[in-house]
Structures are given as C-alpha cells and as structure tokens.
Task: structure prediction
Amino acid sequence: MSTNGPRAEVVGSLLRPDYLKDAVARHHAGDLNEAGLRAVEDRAVRERIALQEECGIEVVTDGEMRRTAWTDPLTAGLGGFGRSEQIGLFSQSGPRRSMLPALTGTVTLERNLPLQEAIFARECTSRPVKPTMPSPSYASHLYVPGVSEEAYASREDCLAALIPLLAELVRGVVDAGFDYIQLDCPRYSALVMTETRERMRELGMSPDSWLGTMISFDNQLIDEFPEVTWGMHVCRGNHQSTWYAEGGYDLIAEQLFSELHVDRLFLEYDTPRSGTFEPLRFVASDKTVVLGLLSTKFPELEPDDVVIARIEEASEHVPLERLALSPQCGFASTFPGNLVDEEAQRRKLQTVARVARTVWG
Result:
C-alpha cells in the first residue's frame, strides 16, 4: 500500500456467484441449513478476496457476500426495521410507490455483521481489510412519518437511540483491530438535483439545513472514533445498473466536502451525470478524494489513457497526492447485482490497479 494511503480500492460489493444465489434460494426454501449456507458464503468470500488480490487491489472487502443488500448491517443487523409502502422521494424514473425499508419498532443490536465479515476476511488475506456499513445519515431516512412514530416521536429521537448502537458496531470492529471503515450514504446526492431541492422546499424543508443535519448525524459517529480512518461513499443509486441522482456536486460541495469529518471521500465520476471536477476545490486539505471513474453499471471497459487523463484533470483541483482510484460504486449493491458479467468486473478491477500503479507508482 502507498505510504499516502491506498490508491486502488473497491467500494464494497462484488458480483455474487450463481452458486451463492442458488444456495440462498435453497436456504429460504428450507432445503439448506444455516451451516450449509455459511459454508457456501465462506467459499464465495475466499474467491472474491482472491480476485481482488489477483487484480492488484490494495485494500480488500469480503465482497458483501453475506448480504442481500448493502444496508444489511443496519436493516438485518439491528432489530426494529421492517418494510412499509412508501412513495420514493428520489427515483431515476420519478416518484413511485414501493415496499421500502422503514423503522417499525424500537432499535436493538442483534448482531455485528461488519465485524463478522471482517474477521473472516482477515483470515483469507494478508492485505488490509475494509469493513463497510451504512451511515447514520442514511439510517435517518428510514424514519418514516406515519410508520415510525409509535417507536420514536421524531427523527431526532430515533437517531439519538440509533447512533449509539452504530457506535457499538464500530467499537467491536475497532477492538478487533480494524482501523479503516467505509460508510455509505445515497442521501447526500439527492441534493445535487434542483428538482429535489424544489420539492423539499414545497414540503417546508430547507435543503441546506437538511444537509447540515445529515452531516451532523454522521459526524456524531465519526468523531467518537478519531483512531479510525473514515471513508464515505457518496452513492448516486446502484440497483441493477440503475441510478437516481443526476447532476454535478456543485450544490452540495462547499458544505459537504468541508464539514463532513471523513478522511476519504468516494465520489462517483463515471459519466457526465456527475458533472465536472470543479467542485473538488471545496475539498478540505486533510481529505483524500477516491475518484470513482470506472462504471460498475455497464460492461464497456474504460481505456487506461482516458482514466489517466481524467485523474490529471481532477488534479487541477486536488493535488495528485490526495487522489486515489476506485470503481464508481459496488458491483452488486443489491442481491441480483448489476448488468455486468464476471469478466467485465475482473477487467475493471485490473484497470483500477494498473492505472493506480502507472499514476502513483
């Protein structure tokens, strides 16, 4: 790993192999017991870690093989969450009614999934392991008016109970010897769209005040663990190659990039939907920007020279020594995975590592 931190990373999830999907289906049908499923998951984790090593990724994850979605450390690891019918405020195709995760009861700590994942992953590699988990700001979105009030009178009351439980998860991870944790939040990117900001104002919400509140939720957790190197992936949506957020970071950059207390910002820059690199001028001087320049949504491979040129363009706003490279998002944020195949995934990971070696040595 570079002395200035890892230059070649993944965001978290990798494609789940068909044999794992089959095992999960058999487990749900009652045809495979818990131990049998764990054995299949273990195999998938070993293979995904080996893939990252072979491709040259410096810090590895377990590929999130034990999850059905990226939210599982929160929605499956903590009690009090269910699903409710909601109209999604943000969607690639506009508002639509869906069954979505929601807080439905008092939150309790059931199991520490990031810790379980990281401990097994460490047994499979000599490289650093990066646990991943949803951020408090995302968790706050699961407080749904009309559904969650019976448990907590307000969103703030909910977070007052929830953040200490997330801190327990982190404490377990840190005490086990892991010092680099990545948070994920798809809520910040909602505010890059003027339409969303206008709709929030129609609902009596100030977009900038809302953004400040979300940042404060995340900082409460982050500030409790100064010994941790914190990453934040600012997700733009990633279910089966779809997205919801479209627009540059201009409307959130000054506030988010300076006030959020993370060390590494994972920013999606794989298509023109993400805008220009100019908002990077607001990134605080103590932060590294991990450029998500290779799409996980489409199989077409980005040429090395194009990726290198994009890094050079970004370095006009953030010094090269404070930049790194990753895919734009995970390859399988939800169970089915994105519309790419195993070979495309491998080629993109190889490109991340190869370009990182070319640029940073």
